[in-house]
Amino acid sequence: MKDFIYKAAKDILTAKYVVALTGAGISVASGIPPFRGKGGLWEKFDPMEYAHIDAFRRDPEKVWNVLIMEMKGIFDKAKPNDAHKGLAKLEGLGILKTIITQNVDGLHQLAGNTDVIEFHGNFAWQRCMACEKRCSTANLDISQIPPRCECGGIYKPECVFFGEMISPHLLWRSKKVASACDVMLVIGTSALIQPAASIPVIAKEAGAIVIEVNPEKTPLSHDTSDYMIKGKAGEVLNRLLAEIEQTK
Ligand code: APR
Predict the structure, then answer these.
(1) What stretches in the chain show pLDDT beneath 50?
(2) DSSP string covering 119-136, please?
(3) Which residues are within 8 A (CB) of 18 and not within 5 positions of it... i.e. 6 or more apart?
(4) How big is the CA angle at 75 (ends 71 and 78), to the nearest 5 degrees?
(5) Cα–Cα distance between 122 and 45 in angstroms, integer?
(6) pTM exceeds 0.90, yes or no
(7) Which atom of ligand 1 lies at the shortest distance from residue 37's CA?
(8) Fold observed for domain 1-32+78-120+166-248
(9) Which tens digits make up the pLDDT trace of 113-138?
(10) Which residues on adjacent β-strands are paired with residue 157?
(11) Which DSSP symbol is given to 162?
(12) Sequence-separated (6 or more) residues with CB below 8 Å from residue 32
């Protein structure tokens, strides 16, 4: 790992425009389980039964009672870990410009990053399926499930469910920053879900150095990533920051 930390610090310090793409793995140390793999959420819940928009429309009470309440309980307790804090420090140093995250936990903003593209939306807000009124999840009345808006419509978290479109504006901006960056850090994503998985490919094709941080290989590791720092996000970010601060 040591050689790759050194190499990444050098690449990052030479770069003018560093962007990060993050996935569930970056929040594991904050107590939020990933989706895939051992202990993953999709081992416990079939995503087609709980995380597809058709499933929500068919039976919102079931989806609210099982998946959404479970996620609420987990997110309410979660705090940024060393990896989130490391990315916030990289922004503070003027190095990291933008984070594109697939996570809906809001932890990058809590850590202090200011330009975060929430590719799959965020859990902090709910939208009424009938009148589109928004309500913060913190202020939502959950004494009745599914929670309802005063118009009678059902609230749904502002997260992108399977079968829903990515916001065209967020997709456009993500592609734009991916084409413009000269280093992309890809942290804690299995890179299995499109279109997020194509963002590093866009960066690579536009000439960026793609650095993966993950304990496991992914479909990007062979063709897209220039190299991988194998390890947990928090540990890698701590070592990377130490190297950058020492070299700077
Ligand atoms: N540090 C870094 N990476 C980690 C860590 C860690 N501590 N722990 C696990 N990982 C890696 C795993 O090896 C895996 O590659 O994080 C990745 C998590 O993969 P997924 O659970 O598939 O999460 P993600 O890639 O974010 O999923 C994409 O799928 O179901 C949807 O909408 C959901 O946004 C999500 C999307």
Answers:
(1) none
(2) TTEEEEEEEETTT--EEE
(3) 12, 90, 95, 96, 97, 181, 182, 183, 184, 185
(4) 145
(5) 20
(6) yes
(7) 21
(8) Rossmann fold (3.40.50)
(9) 999 999 999 999 999 999 999 999 99
(10) 126
(11) B
(12) 24, 74, 75, 78, 103, 105
